[in-house]
Each structure stands twice: as structure tokens, then as C-alpha cells.
Amino acid sequence: MSATVVPLPPNPSSETIDFLRRMASMVSGRNGEMLLRAASLIEQFGHRAMSAERLYHQTQEESTRSTELRVAAELASDAMVGQIEALRSQLAEVAAAAAAERAAFDAERTKLLGLMQHAESHIGKLTSELDALRASVDSFNETVVSVPIEVLRLARTQFDYLSSGFARSGDVISQAMSEIGGFAIDQALTAKKTADKG
Fold first, then answer.
1. Staple 174 to which of 3, 15, 47, 166, CB 3.0 to 4.6 Å?
2. Distance (Å, rounded) from C-alpha 79 to C-alpha 95?
3. Number of domains present in the structure of the chain
């Protein structure tokens, strides 16, 4: 629930404080002390109110930045989900061409899903499984998936962004999954450079 903050006018209580201090100088004894104390309290509360207002505005700005980052992360995540769905569809078409390869792919996919849940302790093993999966897909030379390099670079940037966001939030598993996705894209880009040189 948001609260409306009305900015304080400049020095809203300075006239009152000055008046109380003048009165205190004209009154002696306990009454004078009470007037000085009241002036001091009004001044302190005024400073506190201004500090609270500054803190509220700072918090509001941080909240806006946080919302913008969350929206950007959601957009990047939606884009990646769309790309992942497209790749899954293409892999399903390849699997339909050979029942034996489909069974092998399903077994590898199940292994990969299990590995992603324990990514922090299994990154090396997951990399070798991805290599095995890539080798099985390479056997289908007639089927080629073409993705512009700029799209791969954009996806790589999004993985880096997601990974750093997960690192800040302490979500190690999601961070590892993002790093694995980025690693896979790096491998694809490296393979492309090697092919271009050959």
C-alpha cells in the first residue's frame, strides 16, 4: 500500500522556534526552560521529518529501479522461453524421423533435467552429456537449424544478465543453469568461427 508524502515547506517551523526562543529569553525559571525544550524538540522533529521524506524518496527510486530490472528480466526470460520452445519443436521433428534416436534423446533429456536440479555439483558431467547430445543430433546431417549470430549473441547477453541477477539473489541453481546456457551458446559461436576458418 503506497502512502502519499506531502513535501514539507522550507523551514516550516522556523518562525515558531524563533518565537519560542524569544519568549524563553523573556521568561525565567522553569517556564523558560520548557519553552527552550519545546523549541529544540520542534527543530529536531522537523529534521527528522525531512530525513524521513528524503529516505522515502530514495526508497521509492530504488523500488522503481528494482521494478524496471524485474521487468527486463521477465522480458529476457520470455524471449528465452520462446526460443527454447522453438528448439524443442525442432528436436521433436528430428526425433520423429528415427524412433531409436528419439529414445536416446529422451533418456539424455531426462538426465539433463536431473542434472539441472543439481547443477552446482554436476557442471562437468552435464557438459559431457551436452557433447553427447550434440553428437547424436549431428548424425542428422540433413536437418540443419539456422540461427543468426546476432540472436545467439543477444541470447548470450541475456544469460549473463540472468546469471548475475540470480547471483545477487543467492539462487545458485538458477545461476548455474544460466551459465550452462551461456556456455552452450559460446560453444556454438566457437564452432561457427572454427568452421569459417576451415
1. 166
2. 24
3. 2
Inside any domain, residue 43: yes
Is residue 78, in this structure, part of any structural domain at all? yes
Q: Is 186:156 a contact under the CB 8 Å cutoff?
A: yes
Q: Is 170 left (phi over 0), alpha (psi -120 to 50) or beta?
A: left
Q: Is the pLDDT of residue 132 over 90?
A: no
Q: What's the whole-model pTM score? A: 0.31
Lowest mean pLDDT, pick from 104-108, 142-146, 191-195: 142-146
* Sign of the alpha-carbon dihedral angle for 139, 147, 119, 102: negative
Question: Does residue 107 belong to any structural domain of this protein?
Answer: no
User: Domain range for residue 186?
Assistant: 145-193
**Residue 120 burial by CB count (10 A; 0-12/13-18/19+): exposed, middle or buried?**
exposed
- Under the phi-then-psi rule, with left for phi > 0, alpha for psi from -120 to 50, and beta for the rest, what region is 5? beta
User: Quick check: 27 pLDDT over 80?
Assistant: yes
| Domain's final residue, options 85, 100, 124 | 85
| 198, part of any domain | no
